[in-house]
Amino acid sequence: MSSDYNDNLWNDVLKELQNNIQPRHYEFWFQNSKILALTDKAVKIQVSNEIIKQKIKENYLEHIKNSLFKCSGNELEIEFICEAKAEQQALFDFEIESEQVSQEVKDSTTYPPINLNSLYTFANFVVGPSNELAHSASVAVAKAPGKAYNPLFLHGAVGLGKTHLLQAICNGLISQGYNQQIVYLSCEEFVNEFISAIEDGNLGGFRYKYRSVSMILIDDIHFLAGKDRTQEEFFHTFNTLYNCHKQIILSSDSPPSEIPELKERLVSRFKWGLVATLDVPGFETRVAIVKKKAKLKNKELPDGICQYISENIVSNIRELEGAVNHLLAMAELHKKEITLDFCKRALKDIIRFNEPEIELSDVLEATIKFFNIKITDLQSKNRQQTVVLPRQVGMYLAKKLTKYSLQEIGAFFGGRDHTTVLHALDKIKELSQTSPRVTESLVEIEKQILEKKY
Fold first, then answer.
1. 25-51 pLDDT tens trace
2. 210 and 139 within one domain
3. How many Å apart are CA 383 and CA 389, to the nearest integer?
4. What is the rounded CA–CA span in Å between residue 188 and residue 219?
């Protein structure tokens, strides 16, 4: 039976059991249980440990048999397997699967060198209250892969240090002489490679490549949203690595439960280890970041300059770094001392006092208000015209009025890729020339956004 069927059947069984078992007993004895294997005659059920196995057999076996019969229509022989044995079985299954991959495919499996920024180290990461947990967890994982926090899930808005920490883990392990296979890639790369493997008929090689590593780090895992077949593939890759105690590290712009159109079983697994947030840094941390970025360029900035930059660039570490780099480059080019007056002139195009920055949330709020629809509908997979048009209008205005990239806009509007955003831009541009109603909508929504911000 498929894993989807097994999961659904066991969920139905658990609902039946809840009606016959005291809540506290149910939560204690049946948490983390699942169906490992199912035939027309027998079922293998995984439980946490030997004690729980014995207790369930003694007290709840008949309840489970009755519920299974009610939900599946079959009288099934039940075998309970403890988690440790399940891990051994997973390792055995992977070894069998690996043996079925030809030696030629194994020999042709290559791992390109990891493209890392040498400046992305733990030493260069400025720690503050906004990122302390994420930093300490990353350090722990680098010291003991597969043991400390597995999986480690880091989430936060763009430019707050997720990529820095992922690469710091890689740089730290490599500097320590770690000689096991590490794979670091973006989720988009994983998806594209999976599609290519399907087209080339090389799924066996793809699976062998990603399920035989010692550590996998995937940036922007929210890119899985809405991609059902890739989610299914990653689900099995995750299970194989996790059960073999291989380290999994993921980053996203949202916590697992807020990634739209992500299957519940993946959401659940992403929360098995540690979920750590990177928030917008406070003023003191921003000042420390500005000083650190300047120091990495072998420069020292006066406190007044650091405070000026930190007071006016709030939301994004990358913008802080960009401002420092721009200021130093301008000072070098014009052979000028960096004074507060020079700093203000040099950064006038970056720090704009009278032009509040329009955020994606501003566009979203105005769009749903104008069209009278829910945020959840706009960010969902709903393809009804009453939702598709507002979504495309929102994407169009987001591109026009904000500084965000196509990929960032797509992710915000429900985990869509940049090609979907490009299609929306072309569609609304075309409609704006042929449909007065669409043109009027664009003008009115943009007016509402600008009036609110200015």
1. 777 788 778 888 888 788 889 887 777
2. yes
3. 9
4. 9
- CA–CA separation, 365 and 71 (whole Å): 44
Tell me the DSSP string of 407-445: HHHHHHTTS--HHHHHHHHHHHHHHHHH-HHHHHHHHHH
CATH assignment at residue 364:
1.10.1750.10
Q: Which residues pair with 277 in a beta bridge?
A: 155
CB half-sphere exposure, 123, CA atoms < 13 A: 7
Q: Is the pTM of this model over 0.90?
A: no
**Residue 103 within any structural domain of the chain:** no
Single-letter residue type at 291: K
Q: Residue 61's domain is classified under what CATH number?
A: 3.30.300.180
Q: What is the CATH number of the domain that holds 244?
A: 3.40.50.300
The predicted pLDDT at position 179 comes to: 79
Residue with tokens 């509007």: 413
Residues 336 and 403 in one domain: no
Residue 446 and residue 438 in contact, taking contact as beta carbons nearer than 8 Å: no
Q: Are 26 and 17 in contact (CB under 8 A)?
A: yes
Percent of the chain residues past pLDDT 70, beyond the cut? 91
Q: Residue 344: which of 318, 321, 369, 323 has the closest Cα?
A: 323
Domain encompassing residue 405:
360-453
* Domain count of the fold of the chain: 4
- End position of a domain, from candidates 346, 377, 401: 346
Q: Is residue 113 part of a domain?
A: no
Q: Please, which pLDDT band fits residue 454 given cuts at 50, 70 and 90?
A: very low
The pLDDT tens digits of the residues spanning 243-284 come to: 888 999 999 988 898 888 888 889 989 998 899 999 888 889
Which phi-psi region, left, alpha or beta, contains residue 415 (left: φ > 0; alpha: ψ -120 to 50)? Answer: left
